[in-house]
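Practice set, problem 2.
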Amino acid sequence: MELLLEPSHWALLAVIGLIAGFIDAVVGGGGLLSIPALLALGMPPHTVLGTNKLAASFGSSMAAWTYYRQHLFTPSFWYMAFIATFIGAVLGSFLVYLVDTQWLEKVLPLLIIGIAIYSLVSPNAISDINCQAPIAKPPAKQQWLQGLALGTYDGFAGPGIGAFWTVTSGSLYKLPLLHSCGLARAMTFTSNLTALAIFGWLGQVQWQIGLGMGLCMMLGSFIGARCAIKFGMPFIRPLFILIVLMIAANLAWSAWL
């Protein structure tokens, strides 16, 4: 791919990776930027998905580590969710090769618009009201259902996965917002890494590009996670709703218009 030898393209990927990593660490949705950028390079769609999983794994690992260091995520409470997410991501990564994705492209915008509307009209959807940090392991059944569903979705498609994790975690477990963000980043790292292994095995990863963009996403994720922790709810809630609406608009434009 001679196009990639041009410094201007590498610089553009670096900037997009930095911004995408920042967004992913706070609310999720960095793929809204990174996937179109990779498609613009002329890469096949499945290779774009695999390469994006490589880059996103760097960003989500840094964000998860940052939340963990600030005691906003306790891995021992969530090992059932880890296992379920891993299994779901394996299923989703293989399903994307077997299932006609046209129906998903039509439905996804509606689901994500629904999240945005729910977040706008429900004051408790993205908030710390009546929430507390977990002091024991949440119910295993809920972890399995959530992890399987969202892990499969992330392996299969992925747009808006951070928003899905954040909203469902707050609703299911009554977690404070930053704890929901920490859980979301840890689980998206799990599904990203799992899907990356599958796409890599299938030969659908452009490693050089993914590593370059991934390092930039890692830096962006570190900055984003630190900003979320420092500024909290007033910073996260409006950005969350904005990004979710942008994801929905992007998907609706692609699917319907």
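Problem 2, part (b): a different protein.
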Amino acid sequence: MNLTLKVWRQKNRAAKGGIVEYKVKDISPDMSFLEMLDVLNEDLLRKGDEPVAFDHDCREGICGSCNLFINGRAHGPEKGTTTCQLHMRKFSDGDTITIEPWRANAFPVNKDLSVDRSAFDRIIQAGGYVSVNTGGAPDGNEIPIPKEIADRAFEAATCIGCGACVASCKNASAMLFVSAKVSQLALLPQGNVERKARVENMVAQMDKEGFGACTNIGSCAAECPVGISLENIAILNREFLAAKATSNNLV
């Protein structure tokens, strides 16, 4: 396939960015989207031009690093798929593809298509963990958990922190991400000790980072590559209200 790429180029956070058009030829439909970008960068290097910066790591749909906005959609046109899992067979010969970074004040652009998502890390540091004594591994049956609860916690834990929810939301809200992390621990007995402080601290950090408010549009869940449910936002709201009503209101 021969394609026209319209790629966002930005030298650094302080620089003004813009769309630059490139042509790529002989792209195999079996290539992943990131492999196609590798081909583009090899062409640029041969010409003596600077390659396009973009984030990636595992290329297996696990790490959430491949955060690209493709033709106006987070991770591209295929539902339930990260950018690295998107294959070029989803496009046609002669297509024009627009590639941009996530758009959110809390995700500043480092360079080109690479964004700083460390705001998510700081939210996790604020409370997305459990404090337990280290030592030998406990017996698997020591804390019995109903299968329904374990399944719901596991579904919330599948969040890969890619930021597609933020990029897809008109308010750049991080509620789906935060709710997945809160729900995962709130549903399990291991998370009960810090339950109230956790949700207060994580929501406070989310607001501090500059993410917008949730207005229940649902675009976050629609574009989430791993299918995190909006039900988690309802759980987060209940946890937060309960914490504010009964805790020491640490935040």
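Answer key, part (b): The chain has eight helices and seven strands. The beta strands are 3-9, 18-24, 69-70, 73-74, 96-100, 109-111, 114-115.
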